[in-house]
Amino acid sequence: VQLQESGGGLVQAGGSLRLSCAASETISSINLMGWYRQVPGKQRELISTMTTGGTTKYVDAVKGRFTISRDNAKNTVYLQMNSLKPEDTAVYYCNVLAGLVPIGAWGQGTQVTVSS
Length: 116
Fold this sequence. Notes:
This protein is an all-beta fold. The protein contains no helices and eleven strands. Helix content is 0%, strand content 53%.
């Protein structure tokens, strides 16, 4: 599965962005999709997942502020990000997961920059 992220940009603290992740194949049969983020010098971090059944999980740092969703008809996964903080600044990626192992081809990511 090829993945392409979009929707990043520069936003002030407290603002919102919605990221999109378009998949090259149907995702309706893919149980687990996830969003990651990476800052320079650090490992890519899994921050949110969603199953086909609608079960979502978030790391504590984004819980209550970020919402993952998926539109299987459009083969797209979204990440709504509200109340953004400067520490959310990162390149954001999505992927298909097997267990918690990413198995799709990484896209180029989308840069999110939050100014204070």
